[in-house]
Design brief:
This protein is α+β, with helices and mostly antiparallel strands. It contains 11 helices and 10 strands.
Amino acid sequence: MGALRAAISLGGALLLGTPLAAQVNYAAERAAIARYQDADQRLQDVGWQLARGNVGFCPRVVPSIGLQLQDMASYGAPAIARAALGLKGDFAVQTAARGSPAAASGAFTRNREITALDRLDPNIWAANGAMNWQRLVLAHDHVEAMLTEHGGIAVGFADGAEARVQPVEICATRFELLGEGKTAVADGARVVIGIDFPAFAYGEPEFAALVAHELAHNVLGHDAWLDTNGRSRKHVRRTEREADRLMPWLLANAGYDPAAAVNFMQQWGSKHDAGILKVRKHDGWDERAEFMAAELPLIREVMARDGKADWRAHFRREIVPGGGLAPDPKR
């Protein structure tokens, strides 16, 4: 599912596979790609802030430099995408997350062509046709492996320059943008957000609240727990409630106002309560906002005392990580 770049193009050439260069509106293709990249930048900036800010409490951490790559093979018409961006090869910089080592280096500007990831040129991998996202996943896996094994990575660029970057630890989740749809899901290893999700139009703290909800599922181990205990309506509802309640904790550690979680739910729920938020696997949107608000006094108390909102020590679980459901305080 990662890096389904083919869906991002709004120009006819990439969608229809038009073979004639004279029929390609490259300005439109570049604009479509830029729109996607702008949204991905926002997701990576917020994801980095959440994953870095909560690193002291997550059950699993990984080294990262905050670099997101792009691969022309994942477009519907790789040759057109390559020409639109002025690339000779397939790999280039997609984003460098704000505040990350990649961004601090100043080397990873958008669309800068990449020819080496620690002596490996990812362009040598077979692409096997258009809309191939697997190669990009392989590239990100390779970067993470190099950071883990060597404590840093040297990235080579098509202009002959090289940047050496050392990582920092973050919570072990990747953030991925889909080129269409209103998806917002987590699978234990990734947070995946569709570019059409309404929260992209919200302020950054409220958008961060959406991302925090999905990150909460991952750091609390919900996907694995549901695999073990079954995905009954009752079980899913309790994991959703737990993710809702952890949202303000994650926001606080990332430097956002934890009340942004409540603001998000009020803004989103009041307009979409006939949709995803009203299914019986969730509480009503107004109840969800109340559960979030109920966490705020404790978060502020812990933050004032310790400087961090240690949810690992102070957050009440809805489930028992190694077992079933925790007692429901509403009963």
